[in-house]
Amino acid sequence: MPVTSIDLFASSVHLLRDGEIHAGKRAEGSGRDGWQLTAFYARTDDDRLGHWEVHPEADTVVSCLIGKIRLHLRPELPGQLEEEIRLTAGTAAIVPRGRWHRIELDIPSNILTVTLPHGGHLEK
Questions:
Q1: Is 1 within a domain?
Q2: Could you list the residue range(s) of the whole structural domain that residue 91 is in?
Q3: Cβ atoms of 95 and 102 closer than 8 Å
Q4: Taking the CB of the first residue and of the last residue of the chain, which one, N or C, has fewer CB atoms within 10 A?
């Protein structure tokens, strides 16, 4: 199989359980056999941001490749405060499975996420 470059901002990379890795257009879907790596550029909080997200079946890696972002985690128990993790270029956080989270920008940023491609939920 020939080795070619992959535009991470136009594709999703699918890391399959059997060790294979496939890249494809985001609209093609990934099946349900492994993990999905997704990179995106956000100029404003309206660019794919501004909503809460949860993945009940898997942890999620959220990484700031370039820029500065804030990762917000909803409280787990009543009376607790929302957590905020500041991520700068080259840093990441692991969001535990089942934990609601959202991203806000400090400046335009390149963001990379890794999680299962199915089972997630969004909420405004």
A1: no
A2: 11-123
A3: no
A4: N
